[in-house]
Design goal:
The chain is of the alpha/beta class. It is 35% helix and 19% strand. The chain is built from 32 helices and 32 strands. Helix 9 packs antiparallel against helix 14, helix 19 packs parallel to helix 32 and helix 28 runs parallel beside helix 30. It is globular and about 90 Å long. The protein starts with a strand and ends in a 7-residue tail after the last strand.
């Protein structure tokens, strides 16, 4: 393999990139020769490697001293020494020919110069009224300008931007005392095309040329003949410029790749997604079929929308929401990525999102694409729905975050428009209505709208069944399912978009119903107005329920009170359900279904209510029913329920007998918070650090005391034979707190400070079992209903016990592995209940947040019961964001923000009505909010009704 590196000087990235290539290929590495071209010879990383004799130094140089590469470092270095050679040359502005190469890495080192521009006339890249400042890049007669500009932005109500405009005029006077201040004069960076001659040398002698930091816009390549731009990257930085652009003069190669699949248009592949064409050379048949299917779908759907008065921009959405780590990019790094919003799993489309522009609104129309044998494709319908829901929730927020997301999203759209213009996919003036007003769209002031009487999304299926010869169109859950014979795919892929637009008829569109072809006059409804109508229906339901006399029992026709037993109601269900209560207005049962992921994405729940409202009776009822009906769990697995009882509410005989529960007080708890679980590298160090951090939070220790405690624990591990680096020793019984205390007292100088007091209180009361041979696994201990009674102890001790226990629980939870999943039903393995959790939540212990956030992956749920909604938010954490279902009894304190987060209600008047209603709830009545934020006014199923 031959590589040319042009103008890369030290060539660090090229050298390290070759090491990554060797790691990937391992024993299949061919000989590699690198030609280094620069204006003048310089000492580079290839020279460093050649001059270094020590293997240890080479490992540092090659970055092979950490991670998985560490184990194969010696073999990689040997391969580099035997397979890699290089030569160094100087070039004279492209006049010397370059050697033939498979790949050239060309860096544009054209000198960037400063020039004067008028900031008020310069194209803007500012978004969200200056909250996201950004420069813009423009091409003026072959000179490429990058500058801050404010053209098209009304600064009269944005004093921050007016200040920036005036401040920009100070740049030149600040640098030169002879310059006169001019408020409209700023500076731009400009680069010319003089590097083109040298670049053409690389084109001529390489199969592929990657231009690093090109400093030019895509327009640079617009008029270059006999050359195709096959890949461009703008994913690595937030710069308006491209990170790298790959081009080739070997156009025949890519034409043959497309021709092997019945043809296609290079420009339309590249305009839609900048990496596809590059990957098609090595892609397998299924991957090529998938990409061609998406091109077919985006062109077909474009034809359905083309005649409307809405300007549509189709986006390839995979890299925006990052559902896969393509190109080696971190899935959480993109501002709009789904993982960054907390979604680790769940179906979502990663194919196409059509963004429509009309007046000052945008419309989102998702398209999921499938290719294969004909089937129901119910998953595809869900994927399209979820993509729409995801972006509407992200961009529809009337908050600062929503405003920023709207600005970021518009940057993506405008970048996509540049690509379509480069390849002339649409008519020249097609995007003018957007670009002429780009400054407005970037500010994020636009609103989301919905097409009237049109599907919410589309599912496009290329059906490969040989008998399927005629397209079919069905509407499923307001998603239009378009099934087209795969034989038609080639026509759509090979025919230019503008040609398709010119021939639009229902017949050309496979005789689709004309109602799905948008006409010139479309009507849209603001999404916020649609939500108001839906919220109004919810409000009327709550108000109607509020008029019911809570004291009036439901009676049968003969006047006798109905009293159907809970066991009869629950045993008739096939999967695990808990009867929360009955809707007051209809007496219909309301169930919590902790295993049903279609209704509850996680099993975390919040139960709220002041004293005397029936909150504890409700909570005990939920736990009792979980225990009694655990045989309906996935695979019939028993459920372990761990209860932290601050007020001795769960240690009475009725409850323990009903649940066959066991209780422990804070006297020799039979588990050890210093026990080791898992196989994480340096596990003893992690466990010691976690324990020290928890003790620090509970007792307000200082940094020195925290470090001292961690080191004492590590010494205690070492004393019993546990080596932090030797996993085989981690099964040795861990030292107890009693051992730790003895070690603490053996110090030459024992200071009676807060650390002394903290350890003394734990050991003196023997809160945890002091004998290592008498402790057991916490996970094994919680094999039914297990209550830890905390009443009667100091608050700091109570919170410390809960925190240390949850630390241990979290480490053992991770070791247990994933629960069983059957369709939409996920097994519940453990449940943690923290009653009167307000004091504990305020301490911000990390373990509670981790279990709330990650527990669903291990079949673990958390129930937090407290007297006030405000307790769920602290300065560091918002626990309510991890909770999907709520039971809200009467509370004294409640705020608009609480109503918004729990009930998903934005309207201020409705928030006030709900707050008033909650303050007036009767005993044993509540508002139940399920995973889909539907609200029902219920009469609780109390514990005393079960026994």
């Amino acid at each position: 393999m031959i590589i040319n590196s042009v103008n890369n000087q030290q060539n660090k990235e090229v050298f390290l990139g070759l090491i990554d290539y060797i790691k990937l290929k391992k024993d299949k590495v061919t000989n590699i020769h690198v030609n280094l071209y620069d204006e003048a010879e310089s000492y580079c990383w290839f020279d460093k490697f050649a001059d270094t004799a020590s293997y240890d130094e080479l490992k540092d140089l090659c970055e092979l001293n950490k991670g998985s590469a560490k184990t194969q470092a010696d073999s990689i270095i040997d391969l580099l020494r035997t397979r890699l050679t290089y030569s160094k040359f100087t070039h004279d502005k492209g006049e010397k020919a370059q050697a033939y190469a498979h790949m050239s890495f060309f860096k544009n080192n054209e000198r960037v110069q400063a020039t004067d521009v008028d900031v008020l006339k310069q194209k803007t890249g500012v978004a969200c009224h200056g909250l996201m400042p950004g420069e813009a890049a423009t091409n003026k007669n072959g000179r490429y300008y990058t500058a801050f500009g404010l053209h098209g932005i009304d600064t009269s109500e944005a004093p921050q931007l007016e200040l920036v405009a005036k401040y920009s005029g100070l740049v030149k006077p600040a640098r030169s005392q002879h310059e006169e201040y001019n408020p409209s004069r700023s500076q731009a960076l400009v680069v010319t095309e003089e590097f083109k001659t040298l670049l053409e040398r690389s084109y001529e002698n390489s199969i592929w040329t990657t231009i690093i930091d090109p400093k030019v816009t895509l327009e640079f390549f617009e008029n270059q003949k006999n050359m195709v731009l096959i890949h461009y990257s703008d994913n690595y930085t937030n710069s308006v410029n491209y990170d790298a652009i790959t081009v080739t003069k070997q156009t025949g190669l890519y034409n043959k790749v497309l021709e092997s699949d019945d043809g296609g248009i290079i420009e339309e592949f590249n305009a839609f997604n900048g990496e596809w064409l590059l990957n098609l050379v090595t892609a397998n048949d299924n991957e090529r079929k998938e990409k061609r299917g998406i091109i077919c779908a985006y062109k077909y759907v474009n034809c359905l929308l083309a005649k409307s008065d809405i300007t549509w921009v189709p986006l390839s959405i995979a890299e925006v929401i990052r559902v896969a780590g393509n190109l080696g990019l971190n899935m959480a790094d993109s501002d709009l990525s789904r993982l960054a919003q907390g979604f680790k799993k769940g179906v979502i489309s990663d194919d196409i999102l059509f963004v429509g522009f009309k007046d000052q609104q945008i419309i989102l129309l998702p398209v999921e694409v499938k290719t294969g044998k004909r089937q129901t494709h119910s998953k595809g319908v869900k994927q399209a729905q979820e993509l729409k829901s995801y972006f509407e929730s992200l961009l529809g927020q009337q908050t600062l975050a929503g405003h920023l997301y709207r600005g970021l999203f518009m940057r993506q759209v405008l970048m996509q428009i540049d690509k379509y213009k480069l390849y002339n996919v649409y008519e020249n003036d097609y995007f003018d209505v957007i670009e002429d007003n780009s400054a407005y769209w970037l500010q994020g002031d636009y609103q989301l709208a919905e097409l009237t009487d049109y599907p919410a999304g589309l599912l496009f299926v290329n059906v490969e069944d040989s008998y399927f010869a005629q397209a079919k169109f069905t509407l499923e859950s307001n998603i239009l399912k378009i099934e087209v014979p795969a034989a038609c795919l080639s026509h759509w892929v090979k025919t230019p978009m503008q040609t398709l637009f010119a021939e639009l008829t229902p017949a050309k569109l496979h005789h689709i119903d004309e109602r799905y072809i948008l006409n010139e006059k479309t009507t849209v409804n603001l999404l916020s107005e649609i939500h108001k109508v839906a919220d109004s229906a919810t409000k009327q339901q709550v108000e109607k329920q509020a008029t019911v006399d809570l004291k009036e029992p439901n009676t049968s026709q003969n006047g006798e009170t109905e009293n159907k037993s809970s066991s009869e109601e629950l045993q008739s269900n096939e999967h695990l359900k808990v009867l929360v209560g009955h809707v007051l207005s209809q007496n219909t049962p309301v169930y919590w279904e902790p295993t049903n992921t279609a209704k509850f994405m996680n099993t975390n729940s919040g139960i709220i209510g002041t004293m005397g409202t029936g909150k504890t009776q409700c909570t005990k009822s939920v736990v009792t029913q979980l225990y009694r009906n655990q045989h309906n769990n996935v695979d019939g697995k028993p459920i372990g329920i761990l209860i932290f009882d601050y007020k001795s509410d769960y240690v009475d005989d009725k409850f323990l007998n009903a649940t066959n529960g066991k209780s422990f007080n804070l006297d020799c708890l039979p588990y050890n918070p210093l026990s080791l679980f898992g196989n994480k590298p340096k596990l003893p160090v992690h466990t010691a650090s976690a324990f020290a951090t928890t003790m620090t939070k509970a007792f307000g220790l200082g940094p020195k005391q925290q470090t001292k405690l961690k080191n004492l624990i590590l010494e205690a591990y070492q004393n019993v034979g546990i080596d932090r680096s030797d996993k085989t020793t981690w099964n040795i019984p861990a030292p107890t707190l009693s051992d730790l205390w003895d070690l603490y007292l053996e110090q030459e100088k024992v200071e009676q400070d807060s650390l002394y007091a903290a350890l003394d209180s734990l050991v003196s009361f023997e809160v945890f079992e002091p004998c290592a041979n008498k402790v057991k696994s916490l996970y094994d201990l919680v094999d039914g209903v297990t209550v830890i009674e905390l009443a009667g102890y100091d608050t700091s001790i109570q919170n410390l016990v809960v925190a240390l226990t949850l630390d241990l629980f979290y480490s053992q939870m991770q070791k247990q592995g994933k629960p069983e999943v059957l369709g939409d039903f996920r097994q519940v393995t453990k449940l943690v209940l923290v009653d009167e959790a307000d004091n504990f939540m305020s301490q911000n212990f990390a373990s509670l947040r981790k279990i709330l956030k990650e527990g669903r992956e291990y079949g673990v749920g958390v129930i937090l019961s407290t007297q006030d909604i405000t307790h769920f938010k602290t300065g560091e954490n918002d626990y309510s964001s991890y909770i999907l279902s709520w039971i809200v009894h009467r509370v004294a304190q409640i705020k608009n923000q609480d109503i918004k987060s729990i009930f998903n209600v934005d309207d201020k008047q409705e928030q006030e009505r709900l707050m008033k209603y909650i303050r007036e709830l009767e005993k044993h009545t509540s508002l139940y909010i399920d995973g889909k934020k539907s609200i029902r006014n219920i009469k609780d199923k109390a514990f005393w009704e079960l026994v």
